[in-house]
Structure prediction request, 456 residues.
Amino acid sequence: MLIKRTMKKAIVVLLMAIGITGPLQGQEHAVSNAGEFDWPRFLNTNIDGVAAASKLRLDGLAKPKFLWSLSVGDGYGIGSVDRGSYYHFDSHNGSERLRCIDLKTGKEKWSQSQKLYYRDMYGYEDGPRSTATVDGEQIFTFGVGGQLVCRNRSDGKLLWEIDTNEEYGVVQNFFGVGCSPLVWGELVIVIVGGSPAADADIAPGRLDRVSPNGSAVVAFDRQTGQERWRCGNDLASYSSPRLIDLGDQPLVLAFCRDGLIAVDPGSGKQRWRFDHRASILESVNAMVPIVSGNHVFISECYEVGSVLLKVSAEDAQVVWSDPPRNRRSQSMRVHWSTPVLVDGFLYGCSGRNAPDSDFRCVEYMTGEVQWSDPRRIRGSVTRAGNHLLVLEERGTLQVMKPNSERMEIIAEWDLSQADGTRPAISYPCWAAPVVVGDKLLLRGDETVLCLALRTK
Prediction:
């Protein structure tokens, strides 16, 4: 099928300081001059969990105004936003479904589906764990059962699809596919992690017996779906690939099952790898690597904790690393939510499960813990301007100032109960908030809320 070539949309956003003004007595206002920006992929354009929030003021917040809600099916991911539309990827009636929703009204514009062939081995939901990626006039989804699909953004018309599980011999991971697609020029890049045909008969859950076949990371032509290259001898994780720019050498970083792989996206050649995974069979790598200059942070929660690497196009050197198998001494143990980096400090959730978890602040270059929240809860974080939006997994939303000296909460709302103006969001709230202009998107188990941020 011939597909009309599109020009890639270049988005460059400058994060500006928040203006701080006094409250206006007796009045509440939508956040002033907040432009309608996009959130076109998982963790936003720069894959850092930072909202394009110039002129966004979050001091003196009033309770957010309810705009609309969307009932959603199985899955755990939140959607993406492009040019006034919200794209939500879930499963419904045995199919994976992609819907286009008007961001202002919450009304459905279109809905498209394809058959879903997946059953979770551990009783988790049989729906997508990933977020759709919008680029130009195409939208890409990577389903829990390995279906990589390209559609027309305006109407959802199918352009091409690939069953990567079948094509590359993927032995089902514990919780299915969790990767969100990365678009680089004319390539769509995903973590696949296939195996030789002989491994197809290995019992479910025995990934210790499964062999890789060189397809840890695969790039496809965005126009045709044809494979352009594959590399990496590893199985899949639940992380998503991202780019790092090292001067004249861009690299794709893929945090796979056993470690971090760096790939030249132009040639598809692996440049280096760094092993990082707990020895426990059912351990997982799920966070997206955090990049600052030529430094890369990765972490897992089961055994080995975190490491900061100084990287080049040729290798990766350890700056600091957590002591393995000593969780009380480890700086950060990231499970499924990716922290954010603000002014040299990481803010995010550490630990596997409550009460073995907390929200904390860690110095990026040293690994020194600055503070931790004693409440022992799990949550996900997004940065909006000079503030953090932290969604606790049971539905409490907190607004924090990033303060390396202490935890500074400036507003908090419990959204787990309906209040007469809006429905509730319920456990598990595992997706980080999406912020677009003055609009805030939050996902719970069966509902997405769209709220408007307001000042007093």
